[in-house]
Amino acid sequence: MDKRSTQSAPRIFTLQPSSGIPIYRQLIDQVRRMVASGQLMHGTELPSVREVAAEYTVNPTTISKAYGLLEGEGLLQRNRGKPMTIAGVRRNQGARPQRLKHLEAQIDALALAAVQLDLQAADLIGLIRKKMGEGS
Amino acid sequence: MIDSIVSARQLGKTIKDRTILRDISVDVTPGNVVGVIGKNGAGKTTLLEILLGFSPPTSGNSALFGHDSFTLPASVKAKIGFVPQQEELVNPITGTQLLLLTASLHRHWNPSLTSTLSEAWEIPLTRPIQTLSAGERQKLSTLLALGHEPELLVLDEPAASLDPIARRQFLQQILEIAAAQTRTVLFSTHIVSDLERVANQIWIIRHGTLVWQGDLDALKESVVRLNIHARQPLPASLGVSNVLSCRVEGPHATAVVSRWDGLPARDLEQRLNANVEVENLSLEDIFVELHS
């Protein structure tokens, strides 16, 4: 039913059902990034599968798939009878190569665009350093 | 397969010499929302009618809740709700009267659900049905199929005459049903963007044959467009398997591939000495590609 009147919390995700990327993948990528960037901190409660499905008008199966996979990764914590929360920061959340793997899709896209623009890796590195606040 | 709500094996339907459906086998388990898409005349309505037992198949068999579709006992029929493409509402009475009449035909009826929905959907229940607009009639027809809280809800083009707000409310209602996880929805539509929201399973029918049946997420992950750019002319045959369509022109090529394994295209890049961009496709693009 129409939930507008009962919904108070602002949206935290951006889900595009008509994208070629399945909704569960969009959700996983966003949670990973928001955790990595500190926008979602340890203990933050996530809306329930049902709430996300109703708010975004999407099938609940794809949302619960995303939550399940994120839980499997150790990013989310399931709490009996309570909302899922962002798990504690794991100091060793996998070795560096594993963490880098999360960026593979973005790096592929960046590399492709750079090649098309006839740019070298060296051209990008300075920019990336700056964006990441590591100086040059 | 007691778990299957809908189960059909090798369904075929021929009318005179015309084949409407060919060799269709499907299973639907509880909690799924199955979206059926196909061009006009692809056989969507015929398939739904056979599954519901309105019309017998020429070959094969179909069952609902484990009972042959064509001889469903009343106890099984009571678990089904159906919204036909062309609503068949009785004209001279009011919506309220029709609701009461329909409720009286069912052992179980949820009057608070129908009153909540008729208010939310702004259905003018006090007016004679023949004075309602097409959209209002469709909403009323849907309401009548929801009141007995069916375990299986089948809808044939349910949203065609609904405005965007009404359609969204209708989709929300389907999701409410899906969230129960024990109820099942099967619906056909032309509105691909609706399917992408509420369906988790997709059947794509083309010329009476199912060309895809399965997870929507899996479909989106397995059908991709490869945009290939090289500095030298590319071979006419790219040596990629499961190609749906392919165009090669000098150093550029575009290929749409089904059953892509999801891996980066490194092997292909090396073999062709080219850049390969893997593009995910929307359901609408996939639908068009499956018909190319």
Question: Would you mind describing this structure in some detail?
Answer:
The complex is a heterodimer of chains A (136) and B (292). Chain A has 6 helices and 2 strands. With 136 residues, chain A is mainly alpha-helical. Chain A has 2 domains: 74 residues, Winged helix-like DNA-binding domain superfamily/Winged helix DNA-binding domain (Arc Repressor Mutant, subunit A, Orthogonal Bundle); 29 residues, no CATH class. The radius of gyration of chain A is 18 Å and the shape is globular. Chain A starts with 22 loop residues before the first helix and ends in a 5-residue tail after the last helix. Chain B folds into 2 domains: 214 residues, Rossmann fold (3-Layer(aba) Sandwich), CATH 3.40.50; 68 residues, Alpha-Beta Plaits (2-Layer Sandwich), CATH 3.30.70. Chain B has 10 helices and 14 strands.
Largest sheet of chain A: 2 strands, antiparallel
Helix coverage percent of residues of chain B? 25-40%
Instruction: Work out the oligomeric state of the chains in this entry.
Output: heterodimer
In the CATH scheme, the class of the largest domain in chain B would be: Alpha Beta
Considering the protein shown, what is the CATH homologous superfamily of the largest domain in chain A?
Answer: Winged helix-like DNA-binding domain superfamily/Winged helix DNA-binding domain
Q: What structural class is derived from the secondary structure elements of chain A?
A: mainly alpha
- CATH-defined superfamily of the largest domain in chain B: P-loop containing nucleotide triphosphate hydrolases
